[in-house]
Specification:
Elements: E1 6-11, E2 14-20, H1 21-30, E3 38-41, E4 48-49, H2 77-89, H3 95-112, H4 121-159
Antiparallel strand pairs: 1-2, 1-3, 3-4
Helix pairs in contact: 2-3, 2-4, 3-4
Length: 161
């Protein structure tokens, strides 16, 4: 087949293309495109997983057909979820919740960029939400403590004790 063929692909629900065969080959080599990700080009009746259409590439793909192509870093979903729950329950002035919120945002960015395993997206999102709630409760608690002590010392000062 011709090297000037233009390809389209879908990775984690995001569509890309048209891209040249050479660029698609680069993506496979970098691990951005996995063997189960869908691809399509002119002449195909429907989108197919990459491993089903490897024969259509002029020089083959950089990875043998039986091996996985995507090389994600492990997700930190468990860490984010645990921090979010601890931040929600313990609530040390919202600090732990804030850390969970920040780590959740960073991990979701890594997943969207294709660097981290997207299988942990649910745990990361749950941990991030718990972190946001824990952070907000921590800030609210700080405000309430400040108000309480202001009123307490105001009454003590007014009573002349």
């Amino acid at each position: 087949m011709a090297d000037d063929r233009q390809w389209h692909c879908t990775v984690n629900g995001q569509k890309y293309g048209p891209v040249s065969e050479a660029e698609l080959r680069e993506w496979v080599g970098q691990g951005r495109l996995g063997r189960s990700d869908a691809v399509w080009t002119d002449g195909m009746d429907q989108w197919r997983p990459l491993h089903e259409v490897q024969h259509m590439f002029a020089a083959g793909l950089p990875v043998p057909p039986g091996q996985a192509v995507a090389s994600y870093q492990p997700h930190r979903g468990t860490t984010v979820l645990v921090l979010g729950i601890v931040g929600l329950c313990v609530n040390l002035l919202g600090i732990i919740g804030g850390i969970a919120w920040y780590m959740g945002n960073e991990e979701l960015r890594r997943m969207d960029a294709g660097l981290s395993d997207p299988a942990g997206r649910g745990m990361v999102t749950a941990g991030k939400v718990c972190g946001i709630i824990g952070f907000c409760l921590g800030i609210f608690g700080c405000c309430m403590m400040t108000l309480y002590f202001t009123m307490f010392f105001g009454m003590v000062g007014a009573a002349g004790i």
